[in-house]
Design a protein that fits this description.
6-phosphogluconate dehydrogenase C-terminal fold; amino-acid biosynthesis; binds prephenic acid; 8-stranded mixed β-sheet; single chain; binds nicotinamide-adenine-dinucleotide; prephenate dehydrogenase (NAD+) activity; 12 helices; tyrosine biosynthesis
Amino acid sequence: MSRPPYDHVAFIGLGLIASSMCHAIRAAGWDCTITGTARSAETRDIAREIGLCDRVTDSAAEAVEGADLVVLCVPVGAMGGVMEEIAPHLKPGATVSDVGSVKGAVIEAVTPHLPDGVWFIPAHPLAGTEHSGPRSGFATLFQNRWCLMTPIEGTPEAEVARLDRFWTGIGANVDMMDADHHDLVLAVTSHAPHLIAYTMVGVADDLRRVTASEVINYSAAGFRDFTRIAASDPTMWRDVFLNNKAATLEILGRFTEELFALQRAIRTGDGDHLFDYFTRTRDIRRGIIDAGQDTDAPDFGRVGPDTSKAAPAADTPPAKRSQGG
Ligand SMILES: NC(=O)c1ccc[n+]([C@@H]2O[C@H](COP(=O)([O-])OP(=O)(O)OC[C@H]3O[C@@H](n4cnc5c(N)ncnc54)[C@H](O)[C@@H]3O)[C@@H](O)[C@H]2O)c1
Ligand SMILES: O=C(O)C(=O)C[C@]1(C(=O)O)C=C[C@@H](O)C=C1
C-alpha cells in the first residue's frame, strides 16, 4: 500500500461526494483510517451496512477525533454550523476542508469558528451527478476532473500541497483560484445552467397541464438532459443560490439580455443573428472537446472488450448499476 497524505480522514456528511471520496481512497490503495458521520440515523445505518468507512459515529465530535483531515461534505448552508460543532474536538495541526459548490460564503461561515493551529483549506471538486446519498458514490467520480482549491491567506504552503496530493491521488487535477473568482466562474459554468434547467422543466410541467402527457411522451434528447440536471438535490441547490447570490444574479442578468436579443431576432426574422450566434456556441463546444474536458463524449477510438454488461461495482456510476436497496 502506498503512503497516504493523511493517516486519518473524517467525513461530515455521507452523501454523493463523501461516499465517492471513500471509494476513491480505497481504490488509491492508501492505508488510512476513514471515519464518518451524517445528520440522519438512516444515512449512518446505510453507511455502516455498505462498509463505507472504517467507523461511522453518531456524532460529528467523535468522527473528527484524531483526524488529520476533516472534510465537510454537507450542503453549503450547513457548513458554518458543522464547523462550530466540531471546532472543540479537532486535533491540533489538523486540516479542515470542504467540497462546497460555493467558496466565498463558506469561508465566511467557517473561519470564525476555526481554532488556532487548525487550517481551513476550501476545495471544490467539479464532478457530480444528479444522485445523492451514501449509496450514490463511486470511485471514479473525480478521475480527470478539476478540483479547485481556494486557500486563504496565512495557510502554510506545505499543508496546501498536502491537500493537493490528496486530491491528485484520488484522480483529480488540482488548480488554485481566488474564492470570488471561483464563485463567478461557477455561476457561469454550473449555477446559472442549473437554474435554467430547473426553469425549463418547470415550464414544460406547466405546459403539460395543457397538453396532457405529450411533453413526457415526446421529450427529445435536449429536454431529457435538462430533466437530469433538474433532478439534482433541492437542498443542495437552494443553498448554492442563496450563498452565491451576487455572481448568479450578475450572470442571469446577462443571460436575460442575450435571450431577449435572440427573441427579437426570431420575431424580426434576423437569420444572420441566429446563425452567427449558434456558430459561436458550437465553437465553444468543439473547444471543450478538443481540450479533452468532455468525458461523456463518445470515444470512437476506444478499443477493447465490451464491459457494459459486467457485474456492477463501486467504481461505476450508479446510473449504470442496479438501483436496488
Ligand atoms: N452533487 C454534486 O454534484 C456536487 C458536486 C460538487 C460539490 N458538491 C457539494 O458537495 C456538498 C455535498 O453534496 P452531496 O452531493 O454529497 O450531497 P448529498 O445530499 O448526497 O449528501 C449530503 C450529506 O449531508 C448531510 N447533511 C445535510 N444537512 C446537514 C446538516 N445541516 N448538518 C449535518 N449534515 C447534513 C446529509 O445527511 C448527507 O449525508 C455540497 O456542499 C455540494 O454543494 C456537490
Ligand atoms: O454532472 C452533474 O450532475 C453536475 O451538475 C455536477 C456539477 C456541475 O455543475 O458540473 C454540479 C455542482 C458542482 O458543484 C459540481 C459539479
